[in-house]
Amino acid sequence: MTKPVTEANKVAKQIGKTSYKESIGVIAASITDLATAVRELSASKLKRRAVLVLLRDMTNIGMSDIETVLNAAARIDQEYLKP
Q: Which residues fall within 8 angstroms of residue 31, CB to CB, at 6 or more apart?
């Protein structure tokens, strides 16, 4: 049985085939992409509560925990990447 190819698997394979400096660039780009995607989700037509309810339903994780993760993901680039 083959493993489904996810974006994370693709990034991991790409990192495995690159040098240290290139790997840093791939990780930094992934962090930027994550933060951008979460900010775009927040700016979309979906209400914040709808996103929280959908994620809670899919994961059985509390809405306050999900909100904490989404808030952190939206600013992860500002916390961990140099301007």
A: 76, 77, 80, 81
Which residue numbers in the chain have pLDDT < 50? 1
Question: CA 29, 33, 35 angle in degrees (round to 5)?
Answer: 120
Q: What does the pLDDT look like over 25-44, one tens digit per residue?
A: 889 999 999 999 999 999 99
What are the backbone angles phi and psi of residue 77, rounded to the nearest 5°? -70, -35
The answer to whether 70 and 28 are in contact (CB under 8 A) is no
| 38 exposure class (CB count in 10 Å sphere: 0-12, 13-18, 19+) | buried
**Domain limits, the chain:** 7-80
Distance, in Å, from the CA atom of 52 to the CA atom of 31, rounded to the nearest integer, reads 21
